[in-house]
Amino acid sequence: MGLRGALGRRRWLQLAAATAVVAFDPLRRRWVAAAEAREANGSAEACWHRVPRLDGELVLDEAALSEAGDDFGHIVHAIPRAVLRPGSERDVQRMIGFANREGLTLSMRGQGHSTHGQSQAEAGIVIDSRTLASIEVVSAEAAVVGPGARWVDVLAAALEQGLTPPVLTDFIELSVGGTLSGGGIGGATQQHGLQVNNVLELEVITGQGARVTCSPRRHAALFRAVLGGLGQLGVIVRATLALVPAPAQVRVYQLFYTSLPTFLADQRLAVASGRFDYLEGQALPQPGGSIQFMLEAAAYYTPPETPDDASLLAGFTPLAGSTVIEEHGYFDWANRLAPLIAELRATGAFDLPHPWFDVFLPDGGADAYLADVFANLVPEDVGGPILLYPFRRVAALGTLVALPRTELVFLFDLLRFAAPDPAGVARLVAENRTLFEGARALGGKRYPIGSIPFSAADWAEHFGDSFPALAALKARHDPNNVLTPGQGIFPRAP
């Protein structure tokens, strides 16, 4: 490095030291930089509360705050006071303690893929988990990962040893911490449950700042409530994930229908028979207003074994001659959305509002409810995929994820892409609420990644019999109601 470079670096270090956050002014609710602290008198500085020493950094720049105050939905904008980019799990613990002392709220944000402000903390602190993205495959059964690790990277690391997570979401660029806080669903859920059902152990920083290792046998109540607990009790800083042997190939079957009852009957047959490793479905609006339905199923295998097409397709009644069969390598199949996502990002579609609607429907009422929704659906009000697929409720029990009380449950998603018109977006969000009320009347439950206005009373009804236990755990592990205010489950007193 030349003299000029050394001087430039020295100047940068001096500037960074001057602008580094060193204290918080509780009276004016603002951060104090080192330069201001040096200029102040001791009497003034005594009113400030020093920020704990960090391995990472606490940032206040406009770009970081704007990103943390937004999400994939681009509907709710709640700007925090600061963003923590942790250099260690200790940073998370220190800042949770600091937030408690200063009366601040705090939330963790991974890829920001929620759609209605769930991971935001207005005038609080947002932890950017992307700096906690370690991945270690520790055995033939498990991987230990940081909350900011993306599932695509977990899969790649596991595949190096011939392994895979049992359940992957369709879009695998999501963070582990994010999906474990919400549930995590995919085509393998009908065999293996949700992603939260495939966690062996968690390391959590509670809302009081305690670092707790929990599992089905150790602090079990906390373990079950953090999984699917929407960030209310603790921040996940490490997760031990179950792994299974990975297949080499995937044979995908796409069956098409014009009759909703026939489509649903064949989906039920697919789940009941347990013949597929992956099962999903879509509603596909057609020109002229009709809707076609696609049952999408897959068999995983490693040659020389091959799937028996005739046995796998026996008993189904799709449109004659409509079935499509494709072959994919396992990783390419798991990451099949990557080209589409790249295109959407390039065209700016990722920057559009996404007022998504996501619910779990009970088996008994799903048919009539869906028929009514599809009869009144305006395709232009969706603009993205419409997902519809069943899974066995028993496979997804044991965590805080709320599900209808039927043996079979259908996931129904309207993955809306909306024009950047506030009035139009507000109309779609209001429509989501109306659709939800119809689903709730049947015993349906919200899958809480979407854009549905919810009150504290709605959340109490959503969790049902589990809510008193959740409230008791909240009082124990986050008594100051510091964590994840964007969900609105436990509103803070004004």
CATH architecture name of the largest domain = 3-Layer(aba) Sandwich
Helix segment tally = 17
Number of domains: 3
Structural class: alpha+beta
Please give the alpha-carbon distance between the first and last residues.
55 Å
Q: Taking Cα atoms only, what radius of gyration do you get, to the nearest Å?
A: 24 Å
Describe the model:
- By secondary structure, the chain is an alpha+beta fold.
- It has 3 domains: 17-130, Uridine Diphospho-n-acetylenolpyruvylglucosamine Reductase, domain 2; 131-245 and 459-487, Uridine Diphospho-n-acetylenolpyruvylglucosamine Reductase, domain 3 (2-Layer Sandwich); 249-454, FAD-linked oxidases, C-terminal domain (Vanillyl-alcohol Oxidase, Chain A, domain 3), CATH 3.40.462.
- Helix content is 33%, strand content 23%.
- It is built from 17 helices and 22 strands.
- It has helices at residues 3-19, 34-39, 42-45, 62-68, 89-102, 151-159, 176-182, 189-192, 220-226, 260-273, 309-313, 330-334, 338-347, 363-375, 422-441, 456-463, 467-477, and strands at 21-25, 30-33, 49-50, 57-59, 82-85, 106-109, 125-128, 135-137, 142-145, 163-164, 199-206, 211-214, 234-242, 244-245, 249-257, 278-285, 291-301, 324-329, 357-362, 386-392, 408-414, 445-446.
- An 8-stranded antiparallel β-sheet has the order 18-15-17-16-20-21-19-22. Strands 8-9-13-11-12 form a 5-stranded antiparallel β-sheet.
- Strand 11 and strand 12 form a beta hairpin.
- It is globular.
- 43% of the residues are buried.
